[in-house]
Design the sequence.
């Protein structure tokens, strides 16, 4: 039975050209280890657990959820991919998606002789290159985050794309007050780790250097850290990220304040809102203030800097900026 997969070939698609020209797909991790044993081990659960143990030794700071996610991707590429399966590869720079058919078994390439740094590979036959505009928003969203992802839920659409059938997607527009709510709902669809990556990227767009999600281990509840060169001073900002629907209380304000050093600043960013007590606590004059950014303020930041966001986030949010005619930007008031 044919299965459908998505594979991202390096950050920003940096290995797509090499893989396309040489007709293969590849993943990283375990660069010095041939993973043939994942296939020969008869018990798949035992194989996956052994892989996780190996991964923990190499990356001891990764959380259990991160270990499970990354090892699951490796396991699928090595053991579950089959000859004849269909694979979709995003090409972000040219806004294309390349569709191919897997033609070879897993192989480990010890000595690299091309510009791709990944050792774990499979040969493919490329079938088609399509514009991202031809693809539904749901399928594009599925290709955003993971290196290896199952696309079984999109099999009908993918087959139609391969056959060159035109697909009409229902269009709907949300504007005004409903726009804020719609953007918040799309942010909530991200898993917590990806939401933190998005916030780190948004901070970097705003002007923070080296805005980075933390690794959960030993992070004292801080999700993102960024540095801002403010001319005469250098600001280190510790951020807690709360992708929730309920209000954030003053206990979170006290928690982040307790983690800050004398030269550090704190902020809480949420998709929701803050209680009155949290707002009052954040602005107390006798202690270090904490910046609070609620859902509406977060959306305003996104809209203000939307053109600067990476393509993957623009695709995920799918916001269209309207061009307003010049005559509609002005009004005349009556003289008193």
Sequence:
């Amino acid at each position: 039975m044919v299965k459908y997969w998505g594979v991202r070939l390096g950050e920003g698609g940096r290995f797509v050209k090499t893989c396309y020209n040489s007709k293969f797909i590849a993943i990283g991790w375990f660069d010095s280890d041939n993973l043939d044993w994942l296939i020969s081990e008869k018990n798949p659960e035992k194989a996956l657990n052994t892989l996780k143990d190996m991964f923990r030794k190499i990356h001891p700071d990764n959380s259990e959820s991160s270990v499970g996610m990354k090892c699951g991707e490796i396991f699928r590429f090595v053991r579950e991919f089959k000859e004849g399966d269909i694979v979709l590869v995003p090409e972000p720079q040219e806004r294309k998606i390349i569709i191919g058919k897997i033609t070879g078994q897993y192989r480990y390439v010890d000595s690299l002789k091309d510009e791709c740094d990944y050792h774990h590979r499979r040969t493919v036959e490329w079938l088609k290159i399509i514009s991202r505009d031809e693809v539904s928003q749901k399928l594009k969203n599925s290709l955003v985050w993971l290196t290896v992802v199952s696309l079984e839920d999109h099999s009908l659409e993918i087959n139609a794309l391969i056959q060159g059938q035109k697909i009409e997607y229902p269009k709907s527009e949300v504007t005004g007050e409903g726009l804020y709510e719609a953007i918040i709902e799309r942010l909530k669809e991200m898993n917590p780790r990806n939401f933190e990556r998005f916030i780190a990227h948004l901070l970097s767009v705003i002007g923070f250097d080296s805005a980075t999600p933390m690794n959960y281990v030993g992070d004292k509840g801080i999700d993102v850290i960024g540095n801002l060169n403010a001319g005469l001073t250098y600001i280190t900002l510790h951020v807690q990220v709360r992708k929730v629907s309920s209000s954030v209380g003053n206990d979170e304000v006290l928690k982040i304040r307790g983690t800050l050093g004398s030269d550090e600043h704190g902020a809480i960013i949420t998709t929701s809102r803050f209680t009155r007590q949290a707002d009052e606590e954040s602005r107390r004059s006798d202690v270090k203030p904490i910046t609070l950014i609620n859902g509406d303020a977060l959306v305003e930041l996104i809209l203000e800097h939307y053109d600067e966001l990476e393509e993957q986030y623009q695709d995920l949010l799918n916001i269209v900026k309207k061009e307003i005619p010049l005559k509609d930007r002005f009004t005349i008031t009556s003289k008193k």
